[in-house]
Design brief:
The protein is elongated and about 85 Å long. The longest helix has 18 residues. It is an alpha/beta fold and 703 residues long. Helix content is 42%, strand content 10%.
C-alpha cells in the first residue's frame, strides 16, 4: 500500500506539471538537494513523502517535547472540558453525542463540528470524534429534501436546523477528518465506517444533481473546478471563498477516493493557481470572498480581508508542508507576514482593506494563530516572531472564544508538527475501542450538561424562594391526589410562574387497588384534563415513595396501578405529561420489584440520602434520567450544599432534575451566606431556570 501510494503521488505530480499551462513547474523531489543555507528547517522533501513534519516551537523557540505537549493539553482541556460558561466550546449530549458551540451566536455550525473532528483525530481522541460525528449525522445530515446528502450549516444546540443549506468548508473538513479517522483507527460499522462516510460526501460533492435534491448544486463548480461558496442554486454558487480552497486535501482525495480521482488531482492544481490570483500582490491579503477568476467579491465587507480570510495563510502553509508544490508558497507567506509585521507585531488588527488599511481597532487570537501557521512556509527571520506570538498567546475565554479558540488549537497542532496525514490502511491491527453507550433519554429531559432546577413544595415556600433570589425556578413541585386537593394552589403557582414547569406528586394511599382495577379511570382522566390546561411540561411523580413501608404499596398492585395510569395517558393523548418513578430513600425490598418496565417509565426519581447511589445505578442500567428530591435541614453551605451540588454535577450523565424543598429548616433565605452562594451556583448555564425558552429547550412544543 505504501509503495503504491507513493507511485500514484509521483504520477499526480507529473500531471500537475503538464497541466500548469506555462506556469512555474512543480519541482520533483529528486531535483531538490538540501543545503546548509536553507532558510527554514522544513525538509527538502514533503511531509507526505518523508513523514517528517516541522516543529517550529522546537526548531525556532527551543521548546522541548514536554513543554509543547503541555501547551497543547492545556488548550484542549480548556476548550473541551473547561468552565461551562466562559471556557469550553465542546458540550456532551447523552452518552454518545456532543456538539461544538459557537458561543458568540449560540448555535452549532458545520465549520466548528468539522474542526472539532479534525482536532480530535489529530490528538487521537476517538470518543470525542465519535460523539461529534454522531451529533452531526443525527441533526445536521439531510436525508431528503432540497439538500439531500449535504449537512445543514447551522442548528440550535437542541438539534433543530436553523438553515438547511450546507456550507462548503464544513463538507470539506468532514471528508478529510473521516479519511484520517479511517487511517488512524480503522473503520467500523454504520456511521462509524469512516471511509464509506467520507466517500459518500465526496460523491455528493460532484454528483449532487443526481440525488434528487432540487435546491443544491455540486460542491465544486463543474466549469472552473473550484469549490463554491454555497452549493445552492443561484448566486451563492457563482463565486468562491479563498479560505475554502484546500488543495492539500484534494491531492489526498485524488489518491484515496473510490472515484473521480482525476478531477481531484486537477482541482488541487486549479486551487493552487487560483490562490495566486486572489491574494493582493503587495500585502498578500486575501478577500473573504472572490469570483472564480480571483477578483474580490463585489461588496466592501466580503471583498476585503475579514475573518474567513484569516485561514488562507495557514492553508498555504500546510499545503507547502504536506506537498511542497511550488516556491510561490514561500514567497506568498513571506509577503503576508512582512505586511503584518509592518503593522507592528503587537498592534496589527483583525480586518483590513486588501491594500493594507486597517478597518477595525481590535485584534484576533485566531488571526495570530493562522499567521503562525503561515510561518511554516516562510523564511525563519520573517516567521519566527509569529511563532513566538502564538506560544505567548492566552487561551480565548468569554463569549467569543469559539472561532479564536478553534483556530488557536489548529494553529498549535500545525506549528508543532502534530497536524499529520493518516493514510488508509495504516491503522494498527488489534486496536480495541469501547462501543458507545446508548444515550440516557426521557420525556422532557434536559441534555447532558444541564440540570433542571425545581423548588417545592407549596406556594408559600416557592414564593419565599422567588422573593429571596428574584429568579423564577425552572420548575414548581407540589403534591396532590386523585381528589384534586390543592388544585387551587397549583392554579396559583402556574399563573404566577408561567415559564416554569410543574412537578406534581400524586398520592395513591388508600386508592391504589382501585386504580389498578380500573375503578377510578374517571378521576385519573379528570386529573389529566386539569394538567393539560397548564400547557407546559408536567412531571407526574406517581405514587411517590412507593417502597416506603408506611405507604403499604404491594409491588404487584403498584405496578398494575402504574400501567393503568400509563394507559389513561395514552388514551387521553396527554402530550405534556412525563411519568416519574420515585422511590423512598431506602426500602425493605429491591426497587426492581416495583419497576413497571422501561416502556412505561420516563424518569427515575429518588430522595437524596444513603440509598441514592443504588437508585442512580438502577437508572444508569435502564438509561433513564433521574430527578433528585432533597432538603438541607439547616446545614451550612460547606457542610451540605457544596457537596450536594458537586454530587449532582458528577452524576450529570443521569441526574437531569433537582427538586429542592425550600421549607422549614431548609429555607435558603435563612442565611445570607447561603443566599449569596446559591445565587452564584445557580446562575451557571448548567442549571435550567424559568424563562421563555425553557419549554422548547426541554422538547415541549407550546400550543
Amino acid at each position: 500500500m505504501y509503495t503504491l501510494q507513493r507511485y500514484l503521488h509521483l504520477i499526480l505530480l507529473l500531471s500537475f506539471i503538464l497541466s500548469a499551462c506555462g506556469s512555474r513547474s512543480t519541482p520533483m523531489p529528486d531535483s531538490m538537494t538540501p543545503t546548509e543555507s536553507q532558510p527554514t528547517p522544513v525538509p527538502a522533501y514533503s511531509a507526505f513523502e518523508t513523514g517528517i513534519y516541522p516543529n517550529l516551537f522546537k526548531d525556532y523557540l527551543g521548546k522541548n517535547d514536554a513543554e509543547i505537549q503541555a501547551k497543547i493539553d492545556e488548550v484542549w482541556n480548556q476548550l473541551f472540558y473547561g468552565d461551562d460558561i466562559s471556557e469550553r466550546i465542546y458540550y456532551p449530549v447523552g452518552s454518545d453525542m456532543a456538539y461544538i458551540l459557537d458561543t458568540g451566536n449560540n448555535d452549532v455550525r458545520s465549520e466548528g463540528m468539522s474542526y472539532g473532528m479534525m482536532i480530535a483525530v489529530q490528538l487521537n481522541k476517538k470518543e470525542e470524534f465519535d460523539r461529534i460525528w454522531k451529533w452531526t449525522k443525527t441533526y445536521m445530515y439531510q436525508t431528503d429534501g432540497g439538500y439531500k446528502g449535504y449537512f445543514a450549516w447551522h442548528c440550535k444546540p437542541d438539534g433543530i436546523q436553523l438553515s438547511a443549506n450546507p456550507a462548503s468548508d464544513g463538507e470539506e473538513w468532514f471528508i478529510m477528518a473521516l479519511m484520517f479517522a479511517d487511517g488512524r483507527w480503522g473503520s467500523g460499522e454504520g456511521i462509524y465506517n469512516y471511509r464509506a462516510e467520507a466517500q459518500s460526501i465526496l460523491d455528493v460533492a460532484l454528483h449532487a444533481d443526481e440525488l434528487g435534491g432540487d435546491l443544491a448544486t455540486n460542491l465544486f463548480d463543474p466549469k472552473t473546478m473550484q469549490v463554491v461558496f454555497v452549493p445552492q442554486l443561484g448566486k451563492n454558487s457563482s463565486f468562491t471563498d479563498p479560505s475554502y480552497h484546500l488543495p492539500h486535501f484534494y491531492q489526498l482525495w485524488a489518491l484515496w477516493a473510490d472515484k473521480d480521482n482525476q478531477f481531484w488531482a486537477e482541482a488541487a492544481q486549479v486551487s493552487r493557481e487560483y490562490l495566486k490570483t486572489t491574494v493582493h500582490p503587495q500585502t498578500g491579503l486575501a478577500p473573504n470572498y472572490s469570483y472564480f477568476d480571483g477578483k474580490p467579491y463585489d461588496d466592501e465587507y466580503n471583498g476585503n480581508f475579514r475573518y474567513d480570510a484569516f485561514r488562507v495563510g495557514a492553508n498555504v502553509g500546510m499545503d507547502y508542508v504536506w506537498f511542497r508544490p511550488s516556491q510561490w508558497h514561500v514567497e506568498q507567506s513571506n509577503r503576508l507576514l512582512k505586511f503584518f509585521a509592518s503593522q507592528g507585531m503587537d498592534d496589527y488588527k483583525a480586518e483590513y482593506y486588501l491594500t493594507g488599511e486597517p478597518q477595525v481597532a481590535h485584534r484576533s487570537t485566531g488571526l495570530m494563530a493562522m499567521n503562525a501557521v503561515a510561518a511554516v512556509s516562510a523564511d525563519r527571520e520573517i516567521g519566527e516572531p509569529f511563532v513566538q506570538a502564538l506560544w505567548d498567546q492566552a487561551i480565548p475565554t468569554g463569549q467569543y472564544r469559539y472561532y479564536d479558540g478553534l483556530l488557536m488549537m489548529l494553529g498549535l497542532l500545525q506549528v508543532s508538527g502534530n497536524f499529520r496525514i493518516y493514510e488508509p490502511g495504516s491503522a494498527p491491527e488489534g486496536q480495541v475501542f469501547p462501543t458507545p453507550m446508548p444515550e440516557v433519554a426521557g420525556t422532557f429531559a434536559p441534555p447532558i450538561g444541564n440540570t433542571l432546577l425545581l423548588i417545592g413544595q407549596d406556594k408559600k415556600s416557592i414564593d419565599a424562594y422567588f422573593d429571596a433570589t428574584v429568579t423564577a425556578p425552572g420548575g414548581l413541585a407540589i403534591d396532590t391526589s386523585l381528589q384534586l386537593n390543592r388544585i387551587k394552589d397549583i392554579d396559583y403557582l402556574a399563573g404566577n410562574y408561567p415559564n416554569s414547569v410543574l412537578s406534581i406528586g400524586v398520592d395513591l394511599k388508600g386508592v391504589i387497588a382501585d386504580v389498578a382495577d380500573g375503578k377510578v379511570d374517571a378521576k385519573i382522566d379528570a386529573l389529566l384534563d386539569a394538567l393539560t390546561v397548564y400547557n407546559r411540561p408536567v412531571y407526574l411523580r406517581l405514587g411517590y415513595g412507593f417502597n416506603d413501608p408506611a405507604n403499604k404499596y404491594a409491588p404487584d398492585v403498584y405496578v398494575s396501578a402504574w400501567k393503568k395510569f400509563h394507559e389513561r395517558i395514552q388514551a387521553k393523548g396527554s402530550m405534556n405529561v412525563a411519568l416519574v418513578w420515585q422511590s423512598a430513600s431506602c426500602g425493605e425490598s429491591p426497587i426492581a420489584d416495583w419497576y413497571p418496565g422501561d416502556e412505561f417509565v420516563d424518569w427515575v426519581g429518588a430522595s437524596y440520602g444513603e440509598c441514592v447511589d443504588d437508585v442512580i445505578r438502577f437508572a444508569r442500567e435502564h438509561f433513564k434520567p433521574v430527578m433528585i428530591q432533597t432538603a438541607s435541614q439547616g446545614a451550612s453551605w460547606d457542610e451540605w450544599f457544596a457537596p450536594f451540588f458537586k454530587f449532582v454535577v458528577d452524576n450529570n450523565d443521569v441526574i437531569r432534575a433537582v427538586i429542592y424543598i425550600n421549607a422549614d429548616e431548609s429555607r435558603i433565605q435563612m442565611s445570607d451566606d447561603i443566599i449569596k452562594n446559591w445565587k452564584a451556583e445557580t446562575k451557571r448555564s448548567f442549571w435550567l431556570r424559568g424563562g421563555p425558552d425553557l419549554f422548547g429547550d426541554l422538547g415541549f412544543a407550546n400550543e
